[in-house]
């Protein structure tokens, strides 16, 4: 099987509030809004994020009963520091500081209004020592 596209779903009691969070802070646009079901996406991207009303008949009972999100979405951005500043200025609490990882990411974590974890990632050059230790040059 080769999926044609990808989507993830946040199940929530507040679809409009969660959708507004992604619109305001990640520049995603609403593609579908049925009230109980909203999708957001960026332009013509071949992925989307769905937001569905908890308790709706289309959501399995086992999922409806969950109240703590264990999902973690990663969004790659051009400038993690700028996104962190904008979120903080808008009153959104960051779950971690912005840090640079040796493997080539500058990132931080934040949560949406439903509690879904978001890893905001800026790709940076990996540390040369880490790169050499983990991807040694092939012997010829």
Walk me through what this model shows.
24% of the residues lie in helices and 33% in strands. It has a 4-stranded mixed β-sheet with strand order 1-4-3-2, covered by helices on one side. It has a 4-stranded mixed β-sheet with strand order 5-8-7-6, with helices on one face. A hairpin with a 5-residue loop joins strand 3 and strand 4. The chain starts with 5 loop residues before the first strand and ends in a 6-residue tail after the last helix.
Task: Outline the secondary-structure elements.
Layout: E1 6-12, H1 15-26, E2 29-33, E3 37-41, E4 47-53, H2 61-64, E5 72-76, H3 80-89, E6 99-101, E7 105-111, E8 117-123, H4 128-134
Parallel strand pairs: 1-4, 5-8
Antiparallel strand pairs: 2-3, 3-4, 6-7, 7-8
**What overall form do the CA principal axes indicate?**
globular
Amino-to-carboxy terminus distance: 37 Å
Overall average residue pLDDT = 92
Helix content range of the residues, please? 10-25%
What's the total count of β strands? Answer: 8
Poorly predicted runs = none
The spatial strand order of the largest sheet comes to 1-4-3-2
Radius of gyration: 18 Å
**Helix tally?**
4
Describe the structure concisely.
The protein is α/β, with parallel strands linked by helices.
Features:
4 helices, alpha/beta, 4-stranded mixed beta sheet, 140 residues, globular, single chain
């Amino acid at each position: 099987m080769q999926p044609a596209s990808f989507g993830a779903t946040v199940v929530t009691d507040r679809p409009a509030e969660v959708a507004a969070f992604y619109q305001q802070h990640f520049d995603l646009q609403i593609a579908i809004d049925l009230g109980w079901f909203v999708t957001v996406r960026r332009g013509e991207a071949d992925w989307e994020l769905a937001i569905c009303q908890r308790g709706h008949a289309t959501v399995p009972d086992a999922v409806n009963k969950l109240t703590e999100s264990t999902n973690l979405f990663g969004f790659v951005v051009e400038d993690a520091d700028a996104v962190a500043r904008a979120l903080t200025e808008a009153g959104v609490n960051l779950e971690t500081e912005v840090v640079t990882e040796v493997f080539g990411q500058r990132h931080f974590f934040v949560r949406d209004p439903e509690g879904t974890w978001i890893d905001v990632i800026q790709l940076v050059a990996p540390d040369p020592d880490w790169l050499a230790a983990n991807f040694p040059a092939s012997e010829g």
